[in-house]
């Protein structure tokens, strides 16, 4: 069956005529019967009581804590640290595959030559 080049989208999903509405119709506004005296429902029913204060916040003040005592900055690591000499560190030989790769990098200019005194003797 050859390809016709026509899709079935237009036949499956037809455009429906939907009337456009601009929201719900609003009810008629309430007609005021008298003059507004500046007294709202909240002012009428929620009366402030004298002597009532807001509770003190439990949140700590946003300031640094100052102490007269010295800071003991000793940690377990600092106390138990023993400096060791680097004189007797065992150096392992460079693997052949890495030597070959470094040589390729040097030839292509991707790796500069190491500075003198940095390679193990």
Automatic annotation (TrEMBL):
- Give one GO molecular function term: microtubule binding
GO annotation, cellular component aspect? axonemal microtubule; centriole; ciliary basal body; sperm flagellum
Classify the source by domain of life.
Answer: Eukaryota
What family does the entry list? Belongs to the FAM154 family.
What is this protein called in UniProt?
A: Uncharacterized protein
Species of origin: Ciona savignyi
Lineage of source species: Eukaryota, Metazoa, Chordata, Tunicata, Ascidiacea
């Amino acid at each position: 069956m050859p390809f016709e080049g026509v899709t079935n989208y237009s036949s499956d999903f037809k455009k429906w005529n939907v009337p456009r509405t601009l929201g719900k119709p609003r009810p008629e506004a309430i007609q005021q019967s008298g003059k507004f005296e500046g007294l709202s429902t909240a002012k009428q029913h929620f009366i402030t009581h004298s002597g009532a204060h807001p509770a003190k916040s439990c949140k700590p003040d946003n300031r640094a804590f100052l102490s007269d005592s010295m800071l003991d900055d000793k940690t377990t690591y600092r106390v138990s640290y023993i400096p060791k000499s680097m004189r007797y560190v065992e150096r392992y030989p460079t693997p052949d595959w890495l030597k070959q790769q470094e040589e390729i990098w040097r030839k292509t200019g991707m790796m500069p030559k190491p500075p003198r005194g940095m390679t193990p003797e």
